[in-house]
Design a protein that fits this description.
206 residues, alpha+beta, Beta-clip-like, four-stranded mixed β-sheet, three-stranded antiparallel β-sheet, 27% helix, globular
Length: 206
């Protein structure tokens, strides 16, 4: 069987459909009911796994389609084969991406047939507050996909303690939001980003 015919057969029995989305580009849509914890779709049915320090992996990460797996590998999807990497972001997602192994999308609440499968991207940016406008349309949409931290924010962090009242309130509000959608791990990314920015500013000040 040719690769094209094999892929056609696979997608004809797939529990999801890949089609145009009102959020952005193509999206992933349920063909059946998924319960919380169900695996919805593989992150990348066709992929390459590269060492995290491989120059190709570093370059591929700029596309925003890669997935860091087990902190040692970067999963690079074959963009010619649809998969969970096509899931759009939502501020009220119904699924989450899990990076262990080959990567997968799992339902976090009931997803009904015809519903778009969405995940929370959790991007943390540096000095680019308006980089990623959000078009998810969910109630309470935050307006931007990314959570941005600045060099000035980093200057107000001492030994993982936030000394600025305004920044502390902003981080607290965002942390509460993250926990409400079961994405508390993004708080760790924010802390690491601020610590790295602080270290860079310190090393450049002497």
């Amino acid at each position: 069987m040719s690769k094209r015919r094999a892929l056609k057969a696979m997608f004809s029995t797939s529990p999801v459909l890949f089609k145009n989305s009102a959020i952005e580009g193509r999206g992933v849509f349920a063909r059946k009911r998924f319960e919380p914890g169900d695996v919805v779709v593989a992150y990348a049915p066709s992929q390459r796994r590269l060492d995290v320090n491989d120059p190709e992996a570093i370059a591929a990460s700029q596309t925003k389609l890669t997935l860091l797996s087990e902190r040692h590998f970067v999963i690079v999807p074959d963009a010619g084969v649809p998969g969970g990497w096509l899931c759009n972001h939502s501020c009220r997602p119904n699924a989450a991406v899990y990076s262990s192994g080959e990567g997968r999308i799992q339902a976090t609440r009931v997803i009904k047939p015809g519903e778009e499968v969405t995940i929370f991207y959790g991007w943390v940016t540096q000095n680019e507050p308006a980089r990623d406008p959000c078009r998810c349309g969910a109630p309470g949409c935050r307006g931007f996909i990314n959570f941005d931290v600045t060099d000035d924010d980093a200057r107000h962090v001492e030994d993982d303690i936030v000394t600025d009242v305004t920044l502390r309130a902003r981080l607290g509000e965002y942390g509460a939001f993250l926990r409400s959608i079961d994405q508390a791990q993004v708080e760790t990314t924010i802390r690491r980003t601020l610590a790295a920015m602080k270290a860079r500013s310190g090393s450049g000040s002497g």
